[in-house]
Amino acid sequence: MPPFSQSSPISNGFSNNHHKNNQQPSTNIITIDVGGQLFQTTKQTLTLAGSKTIFSNLFDSSEHNNNNNNIPFIDRDPELFSILLSLLRTGNLPSKAKAFDIQDIIFEANFYGISDLLVQSQSNPSQFEPFDLEKSIILPLSGRDSPSTIATTPNGSVHVSHGSKITSFDWSLQRKSTTLTSFAAIDSLLALSPNIVAAGATDFSGLQILDLDLGYATQTLNWENATKSSSTVQAIGISPDFLFTSFESGRRNSNSIMVYDLNSLKPVSQIASNEIFGADLGSAIPSTKLNWVPSLNLLMASGSHSGPSGVTGTIKFWDIRSGNAVWEIKETVDCFSDVTVSDTLSAVFKIGVNSGEVSYTDLKKFGSFNSWSCLGDSRKVNNVKKEGFGCKIEAHGHQVFCSKQGELGLWSEVLMGSSNNGKDRVFKKNVLGRSKDLGGNRITNMGFGGSKMFVTRKDQQCVEVWQSSVRRF
Predict the structure, then answer these.
(1) Which residues, 6+ apart, have CB-to-CB distance to 466 below 8 Å?
(2) How far, in Å, CA of 312 to CA of 298, rounded?
(3) pLDDT digits over 405-443, tens only?
């Protein structure tokens, strides 16, 4: 039997003749019969579902129902309907929803046309609670390859590259799919939409745009230097309007950053082009991390190189309109193992490869860089043990997350008001997780999507999901 089975159906198959309706035509209350159980709600609640849903059909037909003293009938599960009606009323699922399988709730939400509301209630970035994060779920990956990189989406879905494959988990982490690519291994991965990713490798030519629903690359973006040699991908970045790709020639004698229109994927400009001559190691360093800084409308490009004199690197801020670098930080002492920028905190943060300590420089003093302000033990700057090797750092919201070996920590700013008298800003470190979450293999990737943080570790064929215990379904 179809979900709306009656003798006189209205739009989408609702029945107007199932029950007599005693409410007055002028009332704001609407009565609905779902699977034999009566529910009452208001027109205002139903309008929250949107104009192209079954609920809007109920609203549109309410005047007709009142005039004919009929109650619309929907042949669906009344208990699941009750949960979704609570979602409409409050914007959150009721506690009784935990007694149901999330897939059943997702299926019903899709039927009623309110899946977006369900996603917002369960995986909204505003629900991210950094100080309450704990390891909650382990997502297993097939095969023997451990994750090389991850890409997240704002709604909390995640794509994981391992070997030649990309495994995707939807926002509920219940649905899993795997796509086989032409890469031997993927080094850079960026989600352009829930089902479209940009992928590249340091040993494979071109940036591929992959449709994960179709299971293949729909487009390949390339860069050619003066010798027309092949080019490999070193990093991918994104802004609201542009896609950025750092290329290096196959002969490793030139590099550049290409700027593409995010919608058409057509080239817009080319910046940071370098042709390497002789032993000019400075120009030999391609950008291996690209971060967009919205407040400055600039692209931060960073890269490092290990040579006889140690690890050196550069951090440059590029104006993509003029193609000029407007600020450059040269790293010679305790060069970054990893670096990130926080537009919210208005600062650049790094982990020193020698010290393993977090340092920052204030973007409020943009262009007048003197030195880094170390948040840990500054005496380790000249450490030769390279305690920061392999450490990762990422900014998200008002916090900066860092990994050191197998442990996770976050730095947050302590607002001192006028009592600080213009001195360095004050940041405090917190260790993430419960005692049983501490330690483990070295962390290789951190990513953030929805209300979740995703973590991968060396030689582990899985992805860790870190969530707030309060927000967990």
Answers:
(1) 133, 134, 135, 136, 408, 432, 433, 452, 453, 454, 455
(2) 23
(3) 889 999 999 987 655 555 678 999 999 988 888 888 999
3-class DSSP assignment, residue 89: helix
412 neighbors 402 (Cβ within 8 angstroms): no
| CB 409, CB 402: distance < 8 Å | yes
Handedness of CA 447, 452, 458, 462 (dihedral sign): negative
Name the pTM for this structure: 0.87
* Sheet of strand 37-42: strand arrangement: 15-20, 70-74, 29-34, 37-42
Question: How many other C-beta atoms lie within 10 A of the C-beta of residue 174?
Answer: 12
How does DSSP classify residue 156? S
Strand partners, 220: 208
Q: What DSSP assignment string belongs to 213-245? A: TTTEEEEEE----TT---EEEEEEEE-SSEEEE
Q: Cβ(435)–Cβ(458) under 8 Å?
A: no
Residue among 215, 171, 159, 163 at smallest CA distance from 187: 163
> Could you give the CA distance from residue 355 to residue 338 in angstroms, rounded to a whole number?
12
> Residue 365 corresponds to which tokens in the numbers above?
């003093």
Stated as kind and residue range, the H or E segment containing 115 is helix 115-122
Structure tokens at 357: 């300590």
CA pair distance 168, 197, nearest whole angstrom: 11
Torsions phi, psi for 119 (to 5 deg): -60, -45
